ABC transporter ATP-binding protein (Caldisericum exile), 308 residues
Amino acid sequence: MEDNIIECVNVSKSYNGIKALDGVTLTIKTGEIFVLAGPNGAGKTTLLESIEGLRKPDNGTIKIFGKGVESFGKQLYYRLGVELQENSLPKKITVYEIVKLYSYLLNVILNPDELIRTFGLDEYAKKYCTDLSGGTKRKLLLLLSLIGNRELIILDEPTSGIDPQSRRFIWEYLRKLRGEGKTIVVTTHSLNEAFDNCDRFALMNKGKIIFQSSRQNFFSETPVKYVGIVNNFHKDSSNLEYEIPLQKGYGTLYCYGKNEEEIKNFFIYLQKEFKVGNEDMVIRKISFEDLFLYYTGIEFKEDGKDEN
Ligand SMILES: Nc1ncnc2c1ncn2[C@@H]1O[C@H](COP(=O)(O)OP(=O)(O)OP(=O)(O)O)[C@@H](O)[C@H]1O
């Protein structure tokens, strides 16, 4: 078995002059849970669907299971399970029937009742797939992507619109599969939850991978280690005579430090210069979501308001 189950080298793709993927080089190791995160429009779906052979990049190479993705044809899907972001379920077919159909198509013998029960879908077994609620449909799509003894499972936002109990179940289930030697690639916007469950991750923005690391090495490798949050701050942040990475929200200031001291010193400056109260300032160790916002967070402008 290959050490790297997916290898993307310099992959690019544009739509009408917009670079959805801009020279992506990324390796996913066999047997890991890999999380791909990024803001809306970052290029995650384009990348995943290129890996799945559903979109054709303009440039670069993608290898999956050690071979070019284009060399597999339909056989690929016996080894690769996919839950697409936009997926339509057939009409007039029940949950039980579709599970049976998938197992037939993938040549696997399974007990649909048992699988349906494992996913907490037993009360819907006789319902048409199209009549399910949004979250229940996603659970069913996940279940379908896992049918068969597939080595690699790529899931595009599997927890989107899913309640907390079911999200916990999904992550537990994915970890169980990882324990069985399967590789799982997930995109999601629930970042801290994904971080807690992953082995490695990459952050994408504007078609590029901007940071990648493992959960274990996250804190030592992230360029900023602490975030400071200042509430009730309505001054113009561009007037601050202090060098620290900043983002301004509506009345909230976010600052990022390589260590705690940098932020503490900034807070002392704010106290002295702007009489900011202790109760309005908080420091915390950086989380995955904080790092995401450090790289991709936007500045808000407060209509010329500056009480300074
Ligand atoms: N079929 C398409 N035709 C034209 N433009 C596309 C197409 N698919 C994606 N794009 C554009 O490519 C860019 C990347 O889109 P993509 O769907 O890959 O992002 P994403 O990171 O998956 O976003 P989200 O988190 O919103 O799902 C966006 O600018 C999007 O508008």
In short: The domain at 4-220 is CATH 3.40.50.300 (Rossmann fold). The chain has nine helices and 14 strands. The chain has two domains: 4-220, 223-296.
